[in-house]
Amino acid sequence: MPLWCAPMTETDATPATGQKGWFGHPPALARLFTIEMWERFGYYGMRALLMLYLTKHFVLGDHASAGLYGGYTALVYLTPLVGGLIADQYLGAKRSVRFGALLMAAGYIALAFGGAPSKAWAEYDGVRHEIIVENFRDGPTSAANEARYVLDNGQKLTIKGQADGSIDLISADGAVARSLPQGALKEGSDKDPLHLAILLTALATIAVGNGFFKPNISTMVGALYAPGDSRRDAGFTIFYMGINLGSILGQFLCALLADHIGWWGGFGIAGIGMLVSFALVTFHGGRLNGLGDTPLGQTRDRGVVIYVLALLAIPALYWLFSNLMSAPRPTPGAGIIGMIMALPVLTKVLNLTFLIAIPGILVWAWRAGSRQEFEMMLAAMVLVVFNVLFWTLFEQAGSSLSLFADRNTDRSVFGLFEMSAPQTQNFNPISVVILAPILSALWGALAARGREPSIPVKFGIALIGVGAGFLILVLGAQFADDQFRVGLFWLAALYVVHSAAELCISPVGLSMITKLSIARITGLMMGVWFLSISLAQSLAGLLAQSASVETVGGEVTNPKLSLETYLAIYEKFGLITIGVGVLLLIGARWLRRWMHGVN
């Protein structure tokens, strides 16, 4: 049984098929819809701010920030595997959701206590110089007249990066006071150890809380419907709309408050959203009776022990985050061994686990199953590997694309107003809401004619789409303005294409796993599927690190070089992914043969 599902039994909250309720569904669906909406409000609102918070407020630099962000999102997908199992065996879904909501609320609110911005500095000739920021605005969107200078012997010098990596320090009269070769200037910041510790503790707390919350709210939705109830798919569709509604509201309001009243406002309202979720699942007035209760057969309550162990897991995740921040860059010329050794611990563990799980399960399937079962499992594993590549590129949204929106995008909307960089991420959920019914109708029409694309073909289309989205941005750069900013239309077009690609792979992935897996290890295979997404999140952080841009005090020193750096990475990986997608389309007929009629 998948970790996300609980036994489907009739409960007080499960009216008989056909009984009136909320839009023809069990009345409890409305409350679960709202609980999930507020949870997604908090998660996506915080996620939209995180990368900019790390680079602008804490001034961690692109490399450390991308690594930390990738590790955080990887754990967000990994911890639900444990949280779902704990709920199934010990706590029950409802108690797990309550506990997870409290932890996530605590984490978001803790992020609001970031303290004063880190003090940036630049070091050259063995001397550390203070960075002065005039008209500084501590928020997602920098002030239009913000300016940074190096204070060198009482003289304010403007920092300008050059295409070859060298840096010119320019005096007030426009003359070049110093020209430093590539690597001669080191930048960093003095960070308050207490506030940095609060940041890492908050991220660890959110990751643990998400593990308890995310899988089990879906389990409660599934438990609303008795086996065979035809309303189940429609119920999850309604529930999915709650996810997108929360995402849209969170990415808009959290960014708005962070810009106008400070980071604490954006993170604080995310925490309030989680407290609303907690209140809705705790004080439900009997509406959730019989849903997600403690599993039958429990002779003793292990709740306290589980809560204590969950809290003890926070320091372990804290250490992983510290390791992600301090992981060195690979030494040029070190080779593949040097690259592997430079990887952070979390990335090594995820890669190793994935590399062991895939062949290990296939060997077991070869020995324990029939030839047909083995071939179906082989097809599933091939698609799981392609899934890693898709999400590695797709999940640039919160990391490198967030920085691209801030640094190299003209975010003006028809000259009427300007979007903030975090708000540009809303193009994704809005596109999903618009495109989902269109693609659903298209697949239905093609199915009626017997021409609906197979699962491998949909995966191939998704890979081509996610690669093409980046090439659209590369094309848009040909029309960049004199400040090296690409028009907002091109970034929006990327998100629209990526959303269409997401709808070709995300909805069918879990279904594919359940259809192709040998029945007695379906739960394990579901775990491998989410392990693949967790690994992709970690690799997405590494990809974002490869697009790192040299900054001083959190701001780029050369917008032209910044644009060229992003586009070079996006073009390279966009073309590679399109090529892989084409190969998958070519090989789809063989995969279909291995799938033995599963579609």
Q: What is shown here, in short?
A:
The protein is an alpha+beta fold. The chain contains 16 helices and 13 strands.
Index terms:
single chain; 599 residues; alpha+beta; Growth Hormone, Chain: A; 3 domains; seven-stranded antiparallel sheet; two-stranded parallel sheet; 16 helices; 13 strands; disordered N terminus; transmembrane; MFS_Transporters; peptide transport; transmembrane helix
Reported by name, the CATH topology of the largest domain is Growth Hormone, Chain: A
Fraction of residues in β-strands: 5-15%
Characterize the quaternary organization of these chains: single chain
Number of helices: 16
What's the β-strand tally?
13
Largest sheet: 7 strands, antiparallel
CATH architecture of the largest domain: Up-down Bundle
**Poorly predicted sequence stretches spanning 5 or more consecutive residues:** 1-19
**Globular, elongated, flat, extended or rod-shaped: what is the shape?**
globular
Which structural class should the secondary elements be placed in?
Answer: alpha+beta
Q: What is the H/E order?
A: HHHEEEEEEEHHHHHHHHEEEHHEHHEEH
Tell me, what is the CATH class of the largest domain? Mainly Alpha
Strand order of the largest sheet: 6-5-4-3-2-1-7
The rounded Rg comes to 25 Å
Helix content: 55-70%
- Please identify which CATH superfamily of the largest domain we are dealing with: MFS general substrate transporter like domains
